[in-house]
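ESCALATION

Customer reports they have been waiting on this structure for their group meeting. Please prioritize. Original submission:
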Amino acid sequence: MSGEVALSLAASGHSCADPRHLGLAAGAPLRFPAGWALIEHPVQGAILFDCGYGPDARAAMRAGLRWVYRRVIHACCPPHADAAHLLRQRGLDADDVRLLVVSHFHPDHIGGLSEFRNARFVAHAQAWRRIQQAGWFELLHAQIWKELLPADFAERLQLLDDEGRRPLEADLAGFGEGWDLFGDGSLHALSLPGHARGQLGLALRTQHGERAVLAADAFWRREQLDRPQALPWLTQQVAMDDPGAYLDTLRRLARFRDTHHGAWVIPSHCADTLAQWRQRYPHAVLEATE
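Update from on-call: job pushed to the front of the queue and completed.
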């Protein structure tokens, strides 16, 4: 089948949170891997969807308000788990990555951007516009750390805007419009608003013939797809750009999963989904070793 790519999942660092913050039952703190994906395209080569935490995020969290962030969510990102390090398991160097899709600009998704010196970046125009126009307090509330962006980020950035969107067909039609990144149907960027302004997901078909949607932070645990509901008030205040859009996006993803047997809907931070993928495809996970 044409348009298929090799997909591997990975995580660079993790954080922890009370399950009640997601509207789940009380229990022990949940561990959230800072997930990202390696997509190996037969023509375009190595592509990343986010890159987790990394050396720049680690340095930023040593002092000031970034240190408070680290303490509150128990963020941890050891050097041996950095994306550039894990890629060596595939025989890839960071300079081999030619494209990196930024789902959104939170530190657990862009903390290692500076290591990918040859990559072009793709992001939503709305997300980039906010970075350019927002003041320091809005950026702080939105959890956007501009110091994590490489100095030449803007020169290497390709923006996805409304003019480039096209109606999606076949099994992706329920997502409305999206962007065919290479014009070959292999990778479609999806708009997944709610958690962060301009948040993107990626839809692809793996070399095993399975449909996969990389859903970024459209939700955090797979249990949330089973019962789509609004998040608690406090979580809406601190972790949401648009609570209404979040719920709409969650419902769309739940419908997609329920009507497409065998499809993968993969949020960036669900340890159970990562474990399920590892069990199915043990050689398609990049693991940190001590």
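Sent to customer with the following note: The domain at 4-19+27-283 is CATH 3.60.15.10 (Metallo-beta-lactamase; Chain A).
Escalation resolved.
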